[in-house]
Amino acid sequence: MESLDEKILDVVQNGFPLEERPYLALGKMLGLSEEQAFERVEGLRKSGVIRRLGGVYNSRALGFVSRLCAGVVPEDRLDAFAAAVDKIPAITHNYVRSHAYNVWFTVIARSEAEIQELVRGLEAETDLHDAHVLSASRMFKINTVMGKAASGNVAGQVSKSAESFVPNEKDRSRINMLSKDIPHTQTPFSDLGIDPSEIRGDLDHKIMRRFGAVLRHQDAGFVANSMVCLSVTKPEVAGAELAALPFVSHCYERDAFEGFPYNLYAMVHACSGEELEKFVDEVAHVSNAKDYARLDSLKELKKTSFYFFES
User: Fold this and answer.
1) How confident is the model over 75-126, as pLDDT tens digits?
2) What confidence tier does 218 reach under pLDDT thresholds 50, 70, 90?
3) Is the predicted pLDDT of residue 161 greater than 70, yes or no?
4) Which of 237, 261, 271 minimizes the C-alpha distance to 251?
5) Which end of the chain has fewer CB within 10 Å, C or N?
6) How many other C-beta atoms are found inside a 10 Å radius of the C-beta of residue 237?
7) Rounded Cα gap, residues 41 and 51, in angstroms
């Protein structure tokens, strides 16, 4: 990847200009014309490096529930399971990982009961079994920004202002549009009928985590990743330590369950298998884990964004 494209990605992941003419502002930041900035970003979108350009919303702040689910599917039935999951918009991510619990997927819905019903339905419809719906008792970090722009981007707790947010009809329409890919034009916000100040308001009220590019990590150079699940005595201490590591994108405390005695989860991203090995070792050392399991991503079955207030 060219150095200019790397600079653009560092900017547009977490600092896409929220202005009527965003590419004019981006061009000024990078020493490019408006047209040049637009064409470079469009090239990254069309090549697949940028999967989506839009808002990354805080599901909890919008009144939704998000859960990580783990289960077992026989290898020869994975394609059928993936096909069933593809039909369910509430499931945004679905991975095969290197563990006896080989399928891991995320669900966003209005309630815990709705998620439980969805998972039990999948068990009835497919060969998914021994499924567990895992809530996060504590969040130490959630950061979908990759590269240099990721440094120091550690999530705190959801603020009271976010928890008390009640969207009106205009809010719901704006959030729905911005949870999708914005138009491939030089004036995307005007074309959507959205004032950029409204987007800044979503950020100020903590209902939006960031506005910018969501990358396909592999195409951006992060070809190896692993979910490292650890058994730690003091998760509050270990979680804070892991959250400070730049190659850790997500870190949560979760309850252990039978056959899976781990209470701290960290997503680790690397540019090579060798680098991933080094990062996983560092995670185990820094956390002072009694035991840990390394669940490498073997296959991405689904990775999409959730469209809030779609109906």
Assistant:
1) 999 999 999 999 999 999 999 999 999 999 999 999 999 999 999 999 999 9
2) confident
3) no
4) 237
5) C
6) 12
7) 11
Q: Phi-psi bin for 211: left (phi > 0), alpha (psi -120 to 50), beta?
A: beta
The 8 Å CB, 24+ separation contacts for 186-191 are 186/21, 186/23, 186/34, 186/35, 186/38, 187/20, 187/21, 188/22, 188/53, 189/18, 189/19, 189/20, 189/22, 190/20
Burial-class residue 129 by CB neighbours within 10 Å (0-12, 13-18, 19+): exposed
Q: Report residue 22 as tokens.
A: 């965003």
8 Å CB contact between 81 and 285: no
Q: How many helices (DSSP H) and strands (DSSP E) are in the chain?
A: 11, 11
pTM above 0.85, yes or no: yes
Question: Do residues 232 and 254 lie in contact, with contact meaning Cβ atoms separated by under 8 Å?
Answer: no
Token digits of residue 50: 């940028």
Are 126 and 71 in contact by the 8 Å Cβ rule? The answer is no
- 167-172 LR contacts (CB < 8 Å, sep 24+): 167/62, 167/309, 172/308, 172/309
Cβ contact 254:293 at 8 Å: no
Kindly state the tokens that stand for 8: 């653009």
| Tokens coding 20 | 């009527």
Spatial distance between the Cα atoms of 190 and 18, rounded to a whole number of angstroms? 11
- The CA distance from 306 to 9, in Å, is 22
